[in-house]
Design goal:
single chain, 462 residues, alpha+beta, five-stranded parallel beta sheet, elongated, disordered N terminus
């Protein structure tokens, strides 16, 4: 609530709806003037302030500007010109330009982007105020807020109507002042503060909207990550996923695992070239298509051929391709079929003869081309014997392409196999094994990995 202050000398500082300036009338001290003149010297940028001379800019009205005037639009219905405004100065002591509108129609014409603040007389009649049932005391303010949602608004009310002024602030005005106690210094400061508060409110609103969008995007991305469907299977499942994009939850890597009604467990992992949002979207489409085709009974070459058709129809350019590894594990869990489409071979772990874990790569010789590279390509299926107790780790190349040491050498598949063997010797399994593997690869790289990383692990027995 503004502090009541003694009335001071009112010096005309008004731009009566025109942009050109004229010399102000002179008069003896204490003589007031109606709102029908302009300051003698146009306002210049305030030094050392960011808000005093804010006008048109990247953020619209109220944005900081180093080469513009601070302009106020006064909206008041005073044909006699009795309402006087004292001299308004910015923080550098330069005059603030004031335009006057006698009604809301004229205000709409004068409300250009260089206006920073609206000084509104709440006593102004609203269009249609004579209609029956229209008794809203703040209707004129609400009309102005709709007319100028990006502008700061200061409400003028009578000295005995503080409650109405407070309600005006609640409705959307930045502050309220008593029209019969206008003081040049405090009014100038109130205008500057109102502009700054509007800018702050706008920045806070944009920040809140950005946070809400980020939260919604995060929910969407989390919803696009797969939920394994392994009900009824004795296999244990674990996965780790790290997108290469900063602050993203989803990258171009994708994976999935399902169990079909015949008891077969199908696992898949893939990598769309690149790791931006378009690649992430394509990866999700391929994963969903794989799951649908798998439940439809497709497997091996037939499934991969159909996925290639999906990729060719959904990709943005012919240069986009995807690598893929699929595994179908027999219902008894002792054997599996393997198909590779330009993808690294999975890692198989088993107990050794003397209890020492054995880790080795599955055969890579029947690897077919990546999806989207060759028309009418074929992908042979390799039969693998797993045994009674085993672990099968599928991964994308982000896990093996990190740097090792200072010479820039890649970790590679051999380095990954050695790393996993060491972790198995420490007794790590499941989620703990994957977490330790990804963390150690990141440490060897000397920082975060730039490519997407996806790893999934299926275990039987042990």
């Amino acid at each position: 609530m503004p502090i009541p202050i003694p009335r001071q000398r009112a010096i005309p500082a008004v731009e009566g709806g025109q942009a050109h300036a004229v010399s102000p009338p002179s008069g003896p001290p204490g003589e007031g003037a109606a709102l029908n003149a302009t300051p003698a010297t146009p306002a210049t940028p305030a030094e050392g302030t960011g808000s005093a001379d804010s006008t048109r800019g990247a953020d619209g009205p109220g944005a900081a500007g180093n080469h513009a005037h601070l302009t106020v639009l006064l909206i008041e219905d005073d044909p006699a010109g009795s309402l006087s405004v004292p001299e308004l100065l910015d923080a550098a002591g330069k005059p603030i330009r004031v335009r006057t509108a006698r009604n809301l129609t004229e205000a709409g014409r004068l409300l250009t982007d260089d206006v920073n603040c609206i000084l509104l007389d709440l006593a102004l009649p609203t269009p249609g105020s004579g209609d029956a049932g229209n008794d809203d005391e703040l209707a004129v303010l609400k009309h102005v807020l709709r007319l100028a949602p990006r502008h700061a608004v200061l409400a003028l009310t009578g000295s005995g109507d503080a409650e109405r002024g407070a309600e005006a602030v609640r409705v959307g005005a930045q502050d309220y002042l008593f029209r019969d106690e206008l003081d040049g210094r405090l009014l100038s400061r109130a205008i500057r503060y109102a502009v700054e508060r509007k800018r702050s409110d706008k920045a806070e609103r944009h920040l809140t909207e950005s946070r809400l969008r980020a939260q919604e995007n995060a929910r969407l991305e989390r919803g696009l990550l797969p939920t394994p469907l392994l009900e009824g299977s004795p296999l244990r499942f674990a996965a780790r996923y790290r997108p290469g994009r900063s602050r993203a939850l989803l990258g171009g890597d994708f994976y999935d695992t399902v169990r079909t009604p015949d008891g077969t467990v199908h696992a898949m992992i893939g990598d769309v070239c690149g790791h931006g949002p378009d690649e992430a979207a394509l990866g999700v489409e391929l994963r969903i298509a794989w799951r649908a085709l798998t439940f439809a009974g497709l497997c091996g070459d037939q499934l991969l051929s159909t996925l290639q058709q999906v990729l060719e129809h959904e990709r943005e350019s012919d240069e986009i391709f995807a690598t893929l590894c699929t595994v179908d594990i027999a219902p008894d869990g002792r054997s599996a079929g393997l198909c590779l489409a330009g993808h690294p071979a999975p890692l198989l772990t088993r107990p050794g003869a003397e209890g020492t874990p054995v880790a080795e790569l599955l055969p890579y010789g029947n690897n077919g081309p990546a999806l989207g590279l060759l028309p009418n390509a074929r992908w042979p299926r390799t039969q693998i014997e797993l045994g009674g107790s085993w672990g099968l780790m599928l991964y994308t190349d982000g896990l093996i392409e990190g740097r090792v040491g200072t010479d820039g050498e890649r970790l590679g598949q051999d380095g990954m196999v050695d790393l996993v063997r060491r972790l198995l010797d420490r007794g790590l399994t499941g989620e703990a094994l994957l977490q330790a593997a990804v963390s150690e690869v990141r440490d060897l790289n000397g920082g975060e990995l730039t490519d997407d990383v996806a790893v999934l692990l299926l275990n039987r027995g042990g």
